[in-house]
Amino acid sequence: MADHTLPIPGAITAAPSRGAALLEWLHGWVVTVDHKRLGILYVVYAIFFLLVAGAEALAMRIQLAIPGNHFVGPETYNELFTMHGTTMVFLVGMPILFGFANYLVPLMVGARDMAFPRLNAFSFWLTAFGGLLLYFSFIGGFGLYGMGNAPDVGWFAYAPLTAKAFSPGHNTDYWALSLIVMGFGTLGTAINIIATTLSMRCRGMTLFRMPLFVWLMLVVSGLTLITITPLTAAQIMLLIDRYVGGHFFDTQSGGSAVVWIHFFWIFGHPEVYVLVMPAFGIASEIIPVFSRKAIFGYPAMVAASVGIAFVSLGVWAHHMFTVGMTSVGNAFFVLSTMMVGIPTGIKIFNWLATMWGGKIRFATPMLFATGFLFQFLIAGLTGIMLSVAPWDWQLHNSYFVIAHFHYVLVGGIVFCIFAAIYYWYPKATGRMLSETLGHWHFWLFLIGFHITFDTMHLVGILGMPRSIYTYEADRGWNTLNMIISAGGMIQGIAVLIFAWNLIDSFLHGKEAGNDPWDAWTLEWSTPSPPPAYNFGADPVVRSRRPLWDLKHPNDPDWKYEQ
After folding, report:
1. Is residue 128 in some structural domain?
2. Is residue 545 part of a domain?
3. Contact 110, 202 (CB under 8 A)
4. Handedness of CA 496, 502, 507, 510 (dihedral sign)
């Protein structure tokens, strides 16, 4: 029979063991539906895979440092090439940016949680299991030249390389299935962000008083709903081709390999903006705070964000100038690609105008945000160059394209991710990251970045293709490749400093307080870290800088339209 006796008041009960306490702590994180914990899980998950993807990149750069190298074989190189690209886009870029949105959007709009907390948790675990499924492919065992069943068809998986005849194992299946699972997780998060932004804003938080980060995540979430769908459809068609004989992409049976390219890049190029627009939002929060000026041209920034989203849906075939489209098709995609530079240029001018005349503090978040401005400008210029079809014909599938792409993803997005971590880490943990280590991280990463990717433009112009695993010594690429690999090693050292800074500051960092940067958005009005319920009382907002208005109600330098 059950014992229903009550404990004696004042009696001493045994404290739980350390093991039981640890299990209870882990259980709390696994079953959580708190948007802040889920945001942290996204970020930690993405940082782990950033280290993994970095190790894969360094292995490739060691292989290419000298001609005729045998550090890895061709099969292993193809696997590294595929896994690095897939990991950086789907396991680093999207999770970490949606992780920031998970953590920050409810706090910024004055909500207690996301609109659908259980869907939020489900979306994270779908994304997490999708990433693990992709890396389960390595379990197949290590062969002499290959790593078992890891995908080896490039992160773009062009047909017919994915057909059973050319990819007979399960490596492509792992790739397709993992992306389908992660796609459903991403769709759930996007729906949640839209619902939270539109229906859970606090009193006075109109659409045009929202922080720009929230605006950008609203636009990105809508774009995600449009772009993930064709990718998922293409993955399903690919699996039907491989196992049911659907022949969607089998040219010998009436299919078309070009159809796969269309489906992939209808997702793949707007996906670049899905990744970069949250970075724009991060820069739009950090630059004004450290310039001590309100953002210049708020309505124009919102309009430019919406404009980028619309135009980005019509530029995908600039990846396809060499597949034999008509001259009319080429001309349309040349013009649409050039057009996307207009709203992007508006943003760059507005950030510079915000900094102009400001009292700039170059703390670590501002250093990374400033580096982002310079590098994204260059990325935009090389993108305009590649939008010209004859130029693209000459440099398509060369290392010039790799350099441009990494200028966007690393020079733009990763720099903003680092800026965001240094900026909001005190809010999430209650501890400040070390500024000394932060400066070391910034300067080493900046120097390594430019050594690697500036030089990569040159080797691309000299004709080095993007997917080769080795090359002959008489091509004239030897010294340049050694320089590129050295720059990659410097970036690797910088990322290790960053990882150490995260861990050491969490254990021994200086206490941050509620508002260490003297910012003005609502998340800085909560304790650091915020409580489970976020706000003790529902906030009321009367301007775009609600916290600053409370702290400095009579400061004339900060007056602007409400």
Report:
1. yes
2. no
3. yes
4. positive
Per-residue tokens: 90: 């789907």
Give pLDDT tens digits for 268-278: 999 999 999 99
What pTM did the predictor assign? 0.93
Which residue, among 306, 311, 303, 375, has the nearest Cα to 341 in the 3D structure?
Answer: 311
**Domains: count for the chain:** 1
Buried b (16+ CB within 10 A) or exposed e, 45-61: bbbebbebbbebbbbbb
Q: What is the DSSP string of 462-484?
A: TT-BSS-S---GGGS-HHHHHHH
322-368 pLDDT per residue, tens = 998 999 999 999 999 999 999 999 999 999 999 999 999 999 999 99
> Which range marks the domain in which residue 79 is found?
32-210
Identity at 178, one-letter amino acid code: S
Q: Quick one: three-class SS letters along 185-235?
A: HHHHHHHHHHHHHHHCCCECCCHHHCCHHHHHHHHHHHHHHHHHHHHHHHH
CA dist 145 and 63 (Å) reads 13
Asked if the structure places residue 457 within a domain, the reply is no
Task: Kindly report the CATH number assigned to the domain that includes residue 186.
Answer: 1.20.210.10
End-to-end CA distance of the chain: 67
Residue 355, in any domain of the structure: no
| Residue closest to 372 by CA, chosen among 392, 344, 395 | 344
**Using alpha carbons only, how large is the chain's radius of gyration in Å?**
25
